[in-house]
Amino acid sequence: MRWEFRFSLIVAVACMWCAASSGANAQCAVPNVITNGQVADANQVMGNFNAVLNCITNPTPVPTFQLSGPGGGVITLRNPAAATNYNFNFPATPGGAGDVLTSGGGSNPQTWTQTGTSGHSLPFLDGGNTWSGTQTFGSVVGSLSNQAGTSYTLTVNDCGTTIRFSASPQITLTTLNSLPAGCAIAVEQAGSGQVVIAASAGSTLHSAHGFTRTATQYSILGLFVDSNVGGSAANFILTGDGA
């Protein structure tokens, strides 16, 4: 067998391999047709060889590729420049460790969303979640703020926290009429000055025992917003070690 035929046979086999190796690649086309018994020109043979080599090293992707499974349904993959809707588009660049793919919607490609590089961090979630497995959470510790002044007005950020007052003179704590129902605040008298609770305009203060202030140093009062009709008429209930 002459070398021209052997070389042509190698080129033909390589071309068939290239065409069958991936459904996403176009078939390899060679520029020269060499028949059996023909004395092949070296330029023709090398032209065919280089064409096959280019086909292998620089495959041409098809704009759309579909996958189907035995359960039915089709997944359509499109390149990022696709102008029509898609099932799934790959982003143009790889993501980082722990990233997940999230949809841009419409014809936009998927994008990488960072979730962290260790553990099992989750992206920010805006909706409710149904947990199907056992979840382990860390310790929940309440927030504590220190106030050294003799007057303070509540803010919405105080809900769910403990405010520690350390001044020696008497301290005036003013409620806020816009705090939402369910807001709970603990008030600690850490110094010698009693903390007097003053109802702001629009809010109402209730105490089953007529308390209006902390009893003494280390006393803790609880302020709880029972209701707030209209958002500017908070009803506060005062509980705890008061006077």
Describe the fold and architecture.
- It is a single chain.
- The protein is of the alpha/beta class.
- The chain has 2 domains: about 1-80, no CATH class; about 145-240, Jelly Rolls.
- The chain is about 15% helix and about 25% strand.
- It contains 2 helices and 14 strands; from the N terminus they run ααββββββββββββββ.
- The protein has helices at about 5-20, 40-55, and strands at about 65-70, 75-80, 90, 100, 110-115, 145, 150-155, 160-165, 170-175, 185-190, 195-200, 205, 220-230, 235-240.
- The strands form 4 sheets. The protein has a 6-stranded mixed β-sheet, with no helix packed on it. The protein has a 3-stranded mixed β-sheet with strand order 1-2-3, with no helix packed on it. It has a 3-stranded parallel β-sheet with strand order 7-9-11, with no helix packed on it.
- A hairpin with an 8-residue loop joins strand 4 and strand 5 (about 110-115).
- Helix 1 runs parallel beside helix 2.
- The longest helix is centred in the N-terminal third of the chain and has 19 residues, at about 5-20.
- The protein is rod-shaped and about 115 Å long.
- The chain starts with a helix and ends with a strand.
- Mean pLDDT is about 80; it is low at about 15-25.
